[in-house]
Specification:
The protein is mainly α and 107 residues long. It contains six helices and two strands; from the N terminus they run αααβααβα. It has helices at 2-7, 12-26, 35-45, 55-64, 71-78, 90-105; strands at residues 52-54, 87-89. The protein has a two-stranded antiparallel ribbon. The chain starts with a helix and ends with a helix.
Amino acid sequence: MAQIIWKQPEDIKEALKQELENIKDNKQIEGFFDAKDFEILFENYDVPRLGSIKFSFVVLILKSIGIDYDAEKYKQSFGKDITDDTLVSKAHYLEIVSKEYKQNINK
């Protein structure tokens, strides 16, 4: 429903109807954030413009969008030593954030 406020469609009733039909058909809610939002969040933490950010920043971003991310579990499953200072590329960051967001938005 937040998408309707964000997009501000001309026909609010039709937009609400469409959103409810999408939820009914897909059993899913799109959520408020999209890929562009995730990129903007990345750029806010990539101050030196290196194309990567610290793993601890990835965790902070996830928490800022309402996802309680288990960083320790992720570190263990990755199979190598990851610390809070490990650099994460933009592509890898987008993969992590998109996956976690999709998994958590419909809980």
